[in-house]
Amino acid sequence: MYIVFYVIVLIVGLFVLLALIAPKKIQVNRSIVINKPLPEVFQYLKHIKNQDDWSPWKKKDPNMKQEFIGNDGNIGFIVKWEGNKDVGLGEQEITNIVENESVVSRLRFFKPWKSESDALLKVEDVGNGNTKVTWGFSGINKIPANIFMMFYNVDKHVGKDFEEGLTSLKKILED
Mean pLDDT throughout 135-147? Predict the structure, then answer.
């Protein structure tokens, strides 16, 4: 009987310890330089519907259902999606736009798991008509998700998708 009690206490203690030391914040971003002037790149990026042309997630489910609410390229615009297991169910809302600088959106995922994070598209003039585009997201890992993140390399997994998307974006804008 005491052995079962000690095993339970050990498991609970291990869970609490892992919850305390596991990362609470997550941030992933990637960048690419595009051979186009910054205003032209920004005007394309601020329209969320354009992501259908370069986002790796649209490629993972070309048949995903989408609903658009509001005026694309403006604060408050929302795209809702429902797709296969690779893209799930969620929505993206533009929350801030700094003209020729950045577009910030709130990502809300409902399936396969619930989470919220902030997405960022940032542009920077790097000279000679070239624009550096940074695409990323950041969020807070709540318990017990933060424990799972100790064993799952989000930067590697999502970073790969960001790199693929940015490569597609570069091809679209430079062609």
Answer: 77
